[in-house]
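Final paragraph of the annual report: two paired records, presented back to back.
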Amino acid sequence: MQSEGIRWTVDVAGVPVAVAAADERYDETARGRLGAAPNSAAPELDVVVGPDAPVPPDHLQRREVEGYLGWSEDDRAWISDGEMVVAIAPDRVHVGGSIADHLEEDRFDDLLQFGVAAAVARPNRMMLHGAVISRGDDAALLVGGSGAGKSTLAGAALVGGWDLLGDDLCVYRPDDGTVEAVVRTPYVPDEIADRHGLEGVREPGSRNRVRLPVEVLAVGRRRLIGVVSVGHGVDGAILHGSSGDLSVFDDALPVPPFPYVLRRHLKAASDFLGLPAVQLEHARDIERRVPRAIERLDEARAAQTPQ
């Protein structure tokens, strides 16, 4: 049994999660993914992170999805990325593997996200991958593949007077139609921060990002009125559509779509797929990107707001 030397309880978008980390490096990785907002309620989920990887049962058949291997049995599952493994149970997530360098840390971080997202899922809630912005009580979820421009659009929203609730993970509750973001440090591209006066700390390395203070985030639940699917275009075009497009759901799902995962998300996903959606394409011209994005966001809100 690995050491669980550092313990704390975090508020993951309204879900109290108890975290046990083997040492400071694993603790830092967990906080980077789950945030550091405290929660004093009794934990719904225990998360254990450390070097010792759980071992999937030998008798189970494995599946491969999106480069990951997965096993499942009843209400338990295992997802592996090489020597790293996350074991998922209804009330416990165990992620194990080495994080000796940044590449390993990123892979470990992905498995942590997968495990927590799958364990949090219930018929009346699901975790989603995307930025959340709001005007008043109305929120929109910004989704897109890697490099699509979610962080650019989140930065444009801040510049344009929208509230930013979070830029990475959130929990959607279809029973009341609300969304709440995980409170963790947000990042925006340096071109957005530099050109539009968003103050923060430049991220070291080649990712060209600026870390904004967590205080820029608004907190709490908002009514989710629609989804904005983000991409790159020529002139900031906006096309109307529906969340019923499975590509939108695929971008929003924060864990590979193994059968075990899809079963846990089925009920809440059916409500999510009924939300209105629009496709927004960023202007390629950097000078026009933010002002055009702000205009398009306002158009998207007008299109999605119930009359």
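The closing record of the year follows.
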Amino acid sequence: MEKRLYRSRDERVIWGVCGGLAEYFDIDPVIVRVITVVLALASGAGIIAYIILAIVLPLKNSKAIEPKDVVKENIEDLKQSASELGNEIRSTFGGEKDTSKDTSKTRQKRHNALGIILIVAGGLFLLAIFNPFPWFQWRYLWPLILIGIGLLVIVGSRRK
């Protein structure tokens, strides 16, 4: 059977591009997602490539055959996904009571996690401005954080 590149229906966080690439190359989707985030933070190329692939790549088991039909189908899927994501963000941070998907404990954990991330990021940026540790090069901080996240992903996957 011919191996084709598709957007994944199963391994998707936003539009399934990273999941589809992971299926195509037979690797863990988390690795592809980390690479995409690194490219997005480094130069913005990851964001542009992701959007282009989301528009061009067909969904797995798609009925569309012609490229223009694939693009139309993808645009509709992107609109629907963006709308769902917007509703989820609104319900999480807007204070709406949507107990069908989340419990209040889950919502509280999300708020706490976001607050901690923002506090840590703000503290790191503040330290970089004042530079209380002249021996530390702040430009090495983000690569060290990404290496740490990668190690956590590897160690976490071995526990399962």
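Helices lie at 17-25, 29-42, 45-56, 67-93, 104-130, 141-159. This concludes the annual technical report; the extension proposal builds directly on these records.
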